[in-house]
Amino acid sequence: MIRLDAVTVLYRERAALHDVHLHVEAGERVAIVGPNGAGKSTLLRVVAGLLRPASGTAELAGERVERLDRLAVARRLAVVPQLPTLPFATTVEEVVALGRLPHEHPIRGMRPGDRAAVAAAIERVGVGHLLGRDARELSLGERQLVLLAMAVAQAAPVLVLDEPTVHLDLRHQVEVMELLADLNARDGTTILAVLHDLGLAAHFFPRLVLIDRGRIVADGPPADVLSEERIREVFGVDPVFVRLAAPPIPISRPMAASAASSGRDGRQSEGPQGR
Ligand code: ADP
Ligand code: MG
């Protein structure tokens, strides 16, 4: 679904990515981790066709990204950007509805199916209480959720997210992780997410890609990628500061399922370990 081969990206003379090979199959869920400035956002920009590599190739669903126009990219891939900026006055509902632009009829605009997708995304991400608010007045965390709802409404086969949980409190961080797992498991959405929190990444993603100084230095299951030695070398911290829940805990309560159940009493009484 996503294929980067020998991708090198230069900003002026400096290489931000160096001979990067990354293949993500349809239906995979992959987290990109690495220190600040490692090249994570740059990699997502290449995947989304926002940045053309100096050398190497980027493909999306078998097509060279550079040959796709914006609309063709938007039908294949939805992006949740790192710093959500909303330049004009819009309600939350209007922002989420922007996700339907790639699908809208050129003359008739939003059709019933588009409205249904917007309503479903709002419900699924849990931003119903924000409807009618001016999106510019929202807190960063609220904005992040609204942009996630926009991307969910887009219903593209690939979802790419750049640190989607940095502004969220812990409960919302976990809910977003559960939503991503649910989109992946139930809808078959291929997920590529840059994540800051190694614990969340290791817990919710079966495959981690570790980037350091523009190079992929490890790619595989969390326990292999985040060895104590690598945490020391790449992140420069004592591994004692990175607590990984091991083994990964199965997702017992997808966000959508909990939202659909009738409040707290309707929730599963299963323990947090789900077994
Ligand atoms: P990450 O997302 O891992 O923190 P980035 O991909 O944003 O890292 O950046 C990788 C490197 O490229 C950093 O050293 C950053 O300063 C540099 N960089 C990013 N964007 C630009 C730009 N537009 N112009 C010049 N250098 C950039
Ligand atoms: Mg970044």
List keywords for this structure.
275 residues, alpha/beta, Rossmann fold, 6-stranded mixed sheet, 4-stranded antiparallel sheet, 10 helices, 33% helix, disordered C terminus, binds adenosine-5'-diphosphate, binds magnesium ion
Q: For the terminal residues, how far apart are their CA atoms? A: 33 Å
Strand order of the largest sheet: 6-7-8-3-9-10
Helix content: 25-40%
Report the count of strand segments.
10
Catalogue the ligands: adenosine-5'-diphosphate, magnesium ion
What is the ordering of alpha helices and beta strands?
Answer: EEEHEEHEHHHEHEHEEHHH
CATH level-1 class: Alpha Beta
Which superfamily, in CATH terms, is the homologous superfamily? P-loop containing nucleotide triphosphate hydrolases
Number of domains: 1
- Supply the CATH architecture: 3-Layer(aba) Sandwich
Give me the secondary-structure topology.
Blueprint lengths: L1 E10 L2 E11 L4 E5 L6 H8 L7 E6 L2 E2 L5 H7 E4 L11 H6 L14 H14 L14 H15 L3 E5 L7 H17 L3 E5 L3 H7 L2 E6 L2 E6 L1 H4 L2 H8 L19 H6 L15
Parallel strand pairs: 3-8, 3-9, 6-7, 7-8
Antiparallel strand pairs: 1-2, 1-4, 4-5, 9-10
The structure holds adenosine-5'-diphosphate and magnesium ion.
What would your notes on this structure say?
The chain contains ten helices and ten strands. The protein has 275 residues and is an alpha/beta fold. The protein has a single domain, classed as Rossmann fold. It starts with a strand and ends in a 15-residue tail after the last helix. Residues 252-275 have low confidence and may be disordered. Residues 40-41, 82, 162 line the site of magnesium ion.
